[in-house]
Design a protein that fits this description.
about 120 residues, alpha+beta, Alpha-Beta Plaits, four-stranded antiparallel beta sheet, two-stranded antiparallel ribbon, 6 strands
Length: about 120
């Protein structure tokens, strides 16, 4: 199996909707990380997103074939087309371990989409 990690920094008002939408699109879980952003200049920002002192980041480890659907769901639910609501990005993972409890679900989804 091939995996990607999706990292989403979303407006707190949409966090629960983003998690629900991502799971509906195929994510099997989420890790919520507490983060602090600091910018070089007086206004704190990350890729144009103004960050407060503390912010939650949503981390999804997903099967590669589901990543685009999940990214689209995050984009819609988080209203990321609107200024200041957040960003999401993903990248490939070389190796992942400890996913034994999720493998049956991921295999079922893969069979439904590939075969």
């Amino acid at each position: 199996m091939r995996f990607k990690v999706i990292l989403a920094l979303v407006n707190d008002d949409y966090q629960n909707e983003v998690i629900k939408a991502a799971k509906k699109a195929g994510a099997t879980g989420v890790t919520i990380l507490n983060a602090r952003g600091e910018g070089v200049h007086g206004q704190k920002s990350f890729f144009g997103l103004t960050m407060e002192a503390q912010k939650d980041m949503l981390l999804f480890l997903v099967e590669d074939f589901n990543s685009n659907q999940i990214m689209d769901a995050i984009y819609q639910a988080g209203k990321l087309d609107q200024h200041g609501n957040g960003i999401a990005f993903c990248w490939g993972i070389d190796r992942a371990v400890g996913l034994e409890s999720q493998i049956p679900i991921l295999e079922k989804d893969a069979k439904e989409h590939y075969f």
